[in-house]
Model the fold of this input.
Amino acid sequence: MKKLSLIVAALVLAVSVPVVFAHDHARVEQHHYGFDYIPSSSDKGGYTGDLESGIVTVLEAKKLGNSVYVKLRGKIASKLGKETYLFKDNTGTVKIEIDDDDWNGVKAGPKDTVIIEGELEREQGGVIIEVDKIELAN
Done:
């Protein structure tokens, strides 16, 4: 009976601890969408009054592995194709794909600052972010 209690306690502990992996020299946690998620430096604690938690730069995102869920803040510089756009922040540019049904009523142009969330995918032509959520930044 004592063995069974120890096994149950070990299983409960194993399930309740967040899954953390070593990935590209950064801490990676399982995100609720099922993708890996790289916490930003603001996830380490401290003042959060003006910070957007979880946001990475384009430069940081391009260094991450495939199928990582990322959150970026910047501008949509131009439209490249039907659902493909060029996203930029002060560290660089990256292609993004926003399906028509993922806009959810948001209207944004090159002068508007937006926050996007999506899965980073590595393709032969480079990196593209498949956007799941877009919102206007405050």
In short: Residues 15-33, 46-51 have pLDDT under 50 and may be disordered. The radius of gyration is 18 Å.
